[in-house]
Amino acid sequence: MNQRATALGLILGLALGLLTSATDIDLLDRLAAGVAPLGTLFINAIRMVVIPLVVTTIFVGVARLGNPRTVGKLGGSALGFFWGTTVPAIVIGMGFMTLAMTLWPVAVEVPTTVESAQELPGLLDLILRLIPANPFAAAADGALLPLIVFTLLLAAATGAVAEARRQRLITFAEDISAVFVRLIHWILWTAPAGVFGLAAPVVAGMGLGLLAGLAVFVATVVVGLFVFILLFYLPAVRLLGKKGIAEFVKGVSGSFVIGFSTTSSVASLPVMFEDAEALGVSPAVSSLVLSLGAAINRAGSALFQAGAVVFLATLYDVPLPFTTLLSVGFVGFVVAMSVAPVPSASIVTLTPILEVAGVPVAGLGVLLGIDRLPDMFRSATNITGHVAAAVIVEGLCGGDVVEGGGTMTDTIEDRR
Fold first, then answer.
1. CA-CA distance, 408 to 415, in Å (whole number)?
2. Which of 62, 69, 263 is nearest to 152 (CA)?
3. Cα–Cα distance measured from residue 326 to residue 348, given in angstroms and rounded to the nearest whole number
4. Which of 92, 138, 250, 395 stands the most exposed, by the fewest C-beta atoms within 10 Å?
5. SS3 readout for 46-98
6. How far apart are CA 96 and CA 374, in angstroms?
7. Would you say residue 115 has pLDDT above 50?
8. CATH class (in words) of the domain with range 3-397
9. Within 13 A of 331's CA, how many CA atoms are on the CB side?
10. Alpha helix ranges (H) inside 160-190
11. Distance from C-alpha of 293 to C-alpha of 311, rounded to nearest angstrom
C-alpha cells in the first residue's frame, strides 16, 4: 500500500469534509455525498477478502505447531509468554482508550445515515453460539466468532494427524492464503481513493471534532504501548529472564529501531538474532522463539485493535456492555496473533472485531489514513516482545532443545 498516496487521500477527504461542514455550498454537499460510493466499494472489497484470509492464516499458524505434546518445553514456554502478555495488552488498550474518551470526549455528531449496530447476544447465548452447527452457514452469515472457534478446532485436529497429511493440508491452506494476500495487496492499492470516499462524507457530518479525536486516539495508543512495555516486558525480563533491565534495553535497541522503521517483524529477524545472541540467548532458543514470535506474537497489535474498537464505538455512539467486551477480547486475542501478512494488517483484520462489537466499519478508512505512526510503534512493541520472550525462555529453560518441534523458520513475510 502506498502510504503517501493514502495519506494524501485522507488529507483531501478531510479538506473536502471540513469545507462542506463549514459552509452551506450545495455543490460541496453533493460532492461529499457523491464520493461516498468509493468508500463503500473499498470497504466491501476488504470484507470480501478478510474472512477467508483470517481463517486460512489462523489455520496455518495453529496447525503448523503440530501435536501440542511435541511442541516441547521451549515452544510451550514461548507460547505461554505470548498468550499471557496478549491478554493484558487488550485490557490496557480498552482501559486506556475508555479513560481517554472520558477525559477528552469526541465532540462530533454522527450522521443519521450511519448503519445501526446489530443486536448483541447475552453471555449464555454467546457461549452457545461458539460452536457452529453449520460452519459454512456461519461463514455465509459473516458470523466470525463461531467460525474462528471452528477453525481453531480444525487446525488443532490437523496438528495431531500424521505428518504427511498435516503438511499437505498446511501447504494447501498456505497456497490459498497466498492468493488472498495478493488480492488484498491489490485492494489496498485502491486505498487512496477508498479513504478519500470514506473520510469526506464522515468529516462533512462530524467536523473538526473528528480531527481532535484522532489526535487523542494516536496519543493514547502510543502511551499505552510504552506503559505495556514498562509494566510487562521489562519486569518479565528481570524476574524470569534474569537479565538486567538496562542491559536488555540497550541490547534490544537495534531491533526496536529496525522494527520501528520497517514495521515488519520478519524484516527485523536478522537483527533480532544478533541482539538475542548479544544478550546471551543460545541459538537453539533464538531460532525457535524469535521465528515463532515473528509468526504469532502480536501484543502491540492487540493493544492497538482493542483501543480502536473503543474509539470507533465512542465515535458512533455504540454501547459496549461487558458481554460485548468479552466477545471483542476473545476475537481480538485470536485475530491479533494471526494478523495477515499485508500492509496495515492490524487495520484490515480489525473488520471482524468491529462486526462482533456491532460497530460500523466505515471508520476504518480514517484509521488507515493515520495508521503509519501507530503501525511503527506497535511493530516496535511486537519486536521488543519477541526478543524479551527469547531472553525469558533462555532464563527458564537454559537452552533446552525442542523435542519433535522444528524451528518455525518458514514464517510468512511481513506479518505485522
1. 14
2. 62
3. 21
4. 250
5. HHHHHHHHHHHHHHHHHHCCCCHHHCHHHHHHHHHHHHHHHHHHHHHHHHHHH
6. 15
7. no
8. mainly alpha
9. 30
10. 163-188
11. 28
**How many residues in total does the chain contain?**
416
Cell matching residue 54: 483470517
Q: Where does the pLDDT of residue 72 fall: very low under 50, low under 70, confident under 90, or very high at 90 and above?
A: low
Distance from C-alpha of 351 to C-alpha of 346, rounded to nearest angstrom: 9
The angle subtended at Cα 375 by Cα 259 and Cα 366, nearest 5°, is: 165
Beta strands in 87-156, from DSSP E residues, in sequence order: none
For 340, what's the count of Cα atoms within 13 Å in the CB-facing half-sphere?
31
- Chain centroid, CA 414 distance in Å: 13
Question: Cβ distance 155 to 172 under 8 Å?
Answer: no
Q: CB atoms < 10 A from the CB of 7, how many? A: 18
Q: 258: pLDDT confidence band, cut at 50, 70 and 90?
A: confident
How far is 101 from 301, CA to CA, in rounded Å? 20
User: Do 244 and 376 form a contact (C-beta atoms < 8 A)?
Assistant: no
- CA pair distance 180, 2, nearest whole angstrom: 19
Grid cell, residue 370, equals 493515520
* Alpha carbon distance 193, 353 (integer Å): 24
Residue 25: HSE in the Cβ half-sphere, 13 Å Cα cutoff: 13
Burial degree of 104 (CB within 10 A; 0-12, 13-18, 19+): middle
**Could you tell me the CA-to-CA distances from 317 to 50, 112, 169, 213, 348 in Å, in that order?**
25, 12, 43, 14, 22
Window from 83-97, 212-226, 370-384 with minimum mean pLDDT:
370-384
Q: Whole-angstrom Cα distance, residue 293 to residue 407?
A: 11
- Which grid coordinates are listed for 96? 486506556
| pLDDT at site 408 | 38
* Phi, psi (deg, nearest 5) at residue 287: -65, -35
Cα–Cα distance measured from residue 248 to residue 229, given in angstroms and rounded to the nearest whole number? 12
CA atoms of 198 and 46, how far apart (whole Å): 13
Residue with cell 501478512: 341
Residues contacting 2, CB < 8 A, separation 6+: 189, 191, 192
What single-letter amino acid sits at 91? V
pLDDT tens-digit readout, 341-396: 455 677 777 888 888 888 888 777 778 767 777 887 898 899 999 999 999 988 88
Q: Name the amino acid, one letter, at 233.
A: Y
Q: What is the mean pLDDT of the chain?
A: 78
Instruction: Give the C-alpha separation, 406 to 173, whole Å.
Output: 19
